[in-house]
Design goal:
With about 160 residues, this protein is mainly alpha-helical. The chain folds into two domains: about 100 residues, no CATH class; about 35 residues, no CATH class. The protein is about 60% helix and about 5% strand. Strands 1-2 form a two-stranded antiparallel sheet. A hairpin with a 6-residue loop joins strand 1 and strand 2. Helix 2 packs antiparallel against helix 8. The protein starts with 10 loop residues before the first helix and ends with a helix.
Length: about 160
Amino acid sequence: MAGITVQIIGLGALQAGVAAGPATLAAEVRTAMTAGSLLIEGSARRLAPRHTGRLAGSITHAITGGGANLTSKIGPSVAYGLYAELGRGPGRPPPVSAVASWARAHGMDPFVLARAIGRKGTKPHPYMKPAFAANVSGVIALFQKVGARVVARMAGG
């Protein structure tokens, strides 16, 4: 009785790729998350109000978690970043030290400026929300490519 021998070339590599699938998926999702975060971060830096560049320079991202529970937090590390984005309502004046540099650069008395901010508040100068809105489709596109990249890597490509 004659037999037929079938040899599957590359089966071992394919099996190894499939076994590595979860790790490959996690790596590709993290790569997409990082790339998307950098898109938003770059736009936010360009859109941030400027006096010294400190606010723009403080905008970074941090990715936490793993697998399907990745989170990216993107924003400034300086305390006044929130007030620049959302504005500030009237109420308690800010510390004079927080406005001193800006006031002096614009020929104003820092004490008078702090008191005026306390009375009137400040207008918002959004930069984070517009940065997200401008890049949401690009971020989605990055994640839409993850599946194809995972399959290609699992197949040895």
